[in-house]
Amino acid sequence: MAIPVFFILNFVFLHGLNSNFVTIEFVSLIFGTILPFASIVIGVELKKRKNENTEYDLPNKKDRVIPYILAIISYLTGTIILYFFNAPLLTIGLMFCYFSNTMLAFLINFFWKISAHSIGVMGPATALVFAFGYVGFIYALILPFVMWSRIYLKKHTMLQVITGALLGFILTAVQLWIIGRINIY
């Protein structure tokens, strides 16, 4: 979900393809997508080597702890690096939202299984709304399909996917609004 959104934000706010775009997009891609995804793949593969039964959705709470922590570290590191490379404020803000929203999902994970997939759709969709107005909600049109698939696959309940979507939207909107008001530059 992060790849196209970071690409769009960076392309628009850095005025096309240039050396600064390539650097910022590379940082966004590595810390916003590749490292968090790699932590899940590595965790699952290590469990499989120990002949433990697991899957990439990590249905057991305890199996999600290390990938969550590694993703949180990746998003925070990405936020800091983007700041020092003078990335667009919305790019930095979105990476920070990935960090803080994942931190909250991690904490909720100890008590309840919230849909990180729903959060992962609405966070970037909200950033696109901040960038382009209501047209940004076009990205959110995939949300019903993501929610349906999580319920159909019996990975979440209706309440878990709706709560994830609401939290993804509200938390991202509040954080981006605060970041815009503070204007960290």
Describe, in plain words, how this protein is organized in 3D.
With 185 residues, the protein is an all-alpha fold. 76% of the residues lie in helices and 0% in strands. The protein has one domain (2-182). The chain contains seven helices and no strands. The longest helix is centred in the N-terminal third of the chain and has 31 residues, at 19-49. The two termini are 27 Å apart. The mean pLDDT is 90.
Task: Based on the model shown, name its key terms.
7 helices, mainly alpha
Count of distinct structural domains: 1
Helix content: over 70%
Along the chain, the helix and strand elements come as HHHHHHH
- SS element count, helices: 7
Q: What's the mean pLDDT score?
A: 90
The main pleated sheet reads as: none
Unreliable spans: none
Q: SS-based structural class?
A: mainly alpha
* Strand coverage percent: under 5%
Shape: globular
Oligomer: single chain
Give the beta-strand count: 0
